[in-house]
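@channel sequence for tomorrow's demo:
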Amino acid sequence: MIVNSLNWGSYDPVLAQRKLDCLIPCLPMRVTVFGAGAIGSVIGARMHEQGISVTLVGRPAHVEAIKARGLQLRTASGLHIVHLSAAASFGGRPEVVLLSVKSQDVVEACREITANFSAATIVTMQNGVRCDEEAAGVVGRDRVVGCVLYMSATYLEPGIVEQLPGGRLEIGAPFPESRSRVEAVAELLAGVLPTALVSDLAAARWAKLMGNLTNVIPTATGLSARQAFRHPLLSRLAVAAIREGVRTAQLSGQRLGQSQRARRLRLMTILPMALSHRLFAGGLARIFPKDSAFGGSTQQSFLRGSSSELDYLNGEVVRAGRRIDRPTPINTALLERGQSVFTTRQLLTPEQLAAGLPL
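structure tokens (generated this afternoon):
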């Protein structure tokens, strides 16, 4: 069900804005976006445009560029210059922290938050399925609200980000103790993107993870996502990785939910590989505009020289397979070869990435 600011029902951006206009003066919400790269910067900018007090916490070069020239946000409608607060470290007393650091940085970021004696609601916005537990291990289960992001954005250079068209958010409580915080977070984000409340956050995270299993493919080859998923061999590899991931998740007892996305994922595994590839490979490429250089969050981390989140993506399927003694040759190879690319900085050809795999 979609959250329409203070009401349940179909999403109406005009009505959402009116509700937010009424809500914000009554609740002077202070928000910190911790980990303001591409996604965090876009969300922070959109919230600032809604009149919400937002501070971006990001890399020093990004922060200095924002302070000097404002955040340059490129969208399909043109260039927007957004002047908002930015800092290189966490501070202040926000009521809400949007945690948009990479999965491997969640624990350290939460420790920094608690070191500042913050009692804020922590909204986890990572890929993968472990972020809620890892955050709760530091700040407590009652403070963590989960957000599953379906949104594409690119960090072009310090102070400049690009938002691709479309997107939506799914908000839920990873623990019973945090249910009372969920609706307020959904209201806060409803003016940014269409926002749905989900009753089974774990299932929503696993369904999103299946798509993220392909992040390594453009990263390891240096291609854009559109180029990679239009490549005959790499598109087969992408479909095969998802099929293996879905089957392993289901056999290990992980739920995917009943969303349209989850139904498509299950269908992808039921059909023969050739038919599944024929039906679904084109959709992977069509997500991205024809001239888009977007390669995904993993590729952006690689290009910036950051650490790899692949252990939280393909590694999750590998671990699930080990728990039930089920081989996961495709995701195991993608994990190992992707991690090698991060270590050696040497890209692979499509043939090298797919070598020896059962496609």
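heads up for whoever presents: DSSP finds 16 helices and 14 strands in the chain.
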